[in-house]
């Protein structure tokens, strides 16, 4: 055991001891943070209840994991072979990427029965991490390797089979590693729609009882499963010699849209809108349900803008939207700011990672749907909980993205400063931080959809306010019209926020170039 590993283990042991003491003394929110021994005792006492719930959740998460990743890999291969396909479908992909699954869940609960809503939510949650990573691996092959295949008479398909797929395998495994906790999130959220078994059902039923140890036990079991899958895939990836840095690409970056002529960009945009609307109509038609239940784009427009009850709909919607957006902005900016400060601090003092990264890893592996009631125990059922939940879902992705930017400072500039014995802070201020600015903007772009997920979950299951509360009430009253309006409005807001952040990112990159 190396000295570094011993220090890490000692740090973790100290944190466990502090948690135990704080929990036993009830120092946090009058016992809302129980001791680890109390959590373990609750788990042992209730263990007979867990197997059927675990089996249901693992079945839905596993099926969604397989289906979502299969579709992601097939689409990544198709985009690598025929890049125009990605440009044509980019509007649909951006919308799906930005649309929080918490607003999709009630729609799927109406459209499908049995375990399919849970499976589809798990598949949606895992789709983008895998597709993004696979695409990056397929497109970052050394040009010489592809040229060898072409020189021997091989085409695109042969180059993909012989070169690109092998090169993309470590990146594919990185995507699968990130997707594993996401599958648990999708399955748990689907179980919140209803059902007899599943960790989500058990968690929802336990929220009304004053049993913090039970809630923590369920949350830590879900986190343990996610962490085990994350770690297992990480071991496989490292056994192949893959590095630990994950790409920060996204499913909309075809690399050609920005360079195309204005007329071509307009044509691609119009085609993308047609594909999006066509997919919407196809989904509604596939359910076989009437449009009074499964609204089309025209139905949503009528209910929100032109219909006789549109004004009443807007009166209910706009105040809720304003409250949710304010919480999302405050929470996401706070999460990104904390991530930025921590990333800079870890660059200056790398040893601090032994204390901070275990908590960051826990926030990554514990599904947010399991974390929401725990945060509510600690911070109450007010706006503060909504903001804290939003911080928790935006913090870790922002931290990873910003750390990548800080690690990619130009070596030549670093060598110049080292030659004059510049301090770490001077190097950070003059070179490292300026070069990480595009990554900071990328973290804003990627945080927008996650911030909305956090806000809507906290509002729906804790505070009952904002768009999340309105969505929950609409589901309870079977107000399909309002459910579809909320889904469409959230999608538009998320896509516009994403586009604004992406535009700012491109402006900064052009100025730096």
From TrEMBL:
<feature type="transmembrane region" description="Helical">
    <location>
        <begin position="325"/>
        <end position="349"/>
    </location>
</feature>
<comment type="similarity">
    <text>Belongs to the binding-protein-dependent transport system permease family.</text>
</comment>
<keyword id="KW-0812">Transmembrane</keyword>
<feature type="transmembrane region" description="Helical">
    <location>
        <begin position="119"/>
        <end position="138"/>
    </location>
</feature>
<feature type="transmembrane region" description="Helical">
    <location>
        <begin position="92"/>
        <end position="113"/>
    </location>
</feature>
<feature type="domain" description="ABC transmembrane type-1">
    <location>
        <begin position="321"/>
        <end position="501"/>
    </location>
</feature>
<feature type="transmembrane region" description="Helical">
    <location>
        <begin position="451"/>
        <end position="471"/>
    </location>
</feature>
<feature type="transmembrane region" description="Helical">
    <location>
        <begin position="385"/>
        <end position="402"/>
    </location>
</feature>
<feature type="transmembrane region" description="Helical">
    <location>
        <begin position="172"/>
        <end position="193"/>
    </location>
</feature>
<feature type="transmembrane region" description="Helical">
    <location>
        <begin position="213"/>
        <end position="233"/>
    </location>
</feature>
<keyword id="KW-0813">Transport</keyword>
<feature type="transmembrane region" description="Helical">
    <location>
        <begin position="61"/>
        <end position="85"/>
    </location>
</feature>
<dbReference type="Pfam" id="PF00528">
    <property type="entry name" value="BPD_transp_1"/>
</dbReference>
<protein>
    <submittedName>
        <fullName>ABC transporter permease subunit</fullName>
    </submittedName>
</protein>
<feature type="transmembrane region" description="Helical">
    <location>
        <begin position="483"/>
        <end position="501"/>
    </location>
</feature>
<keyword id="KW-1133">Transmembrane helix</keyword>
<feature type="domain" description="ABC transmembrane type-1">
    <location>
        <begin position="54"/>
        <end position="233"/>
    </location>
</feature>
<keyword id="KW-0472">Membrane</keyword>
<dbReference type="InterPro" id="IPR000515">
    <property type="entry name" value="MetI-like"/>
</dbReference>
<feature type="transmembrane region" description="Helical">
    <location>
        <begin position="266"/>
        <end position="284"/>
    </location>
</feature>
<dbReference type="GO" id="GO:0055085">
    <property type="term" value="P:transmembrane transport"/>
</dbReference>
<feature type="transmembrane region" description="Helical">
    <location>
        <begin position="361"/>
        <end position="379"/>
    </location>
</feature>
<dbReference type="InterPro" id="IPR035906">
    <property type="entry name" value="MetI-like_sf"/>
</dbReference>
<keyword id="KW-1003">Cell membrane</keyword>
<dbReference type="GO" id="GO:0005886">
    <property type="term" value="C:plasma membrane"/>
</dbReference>
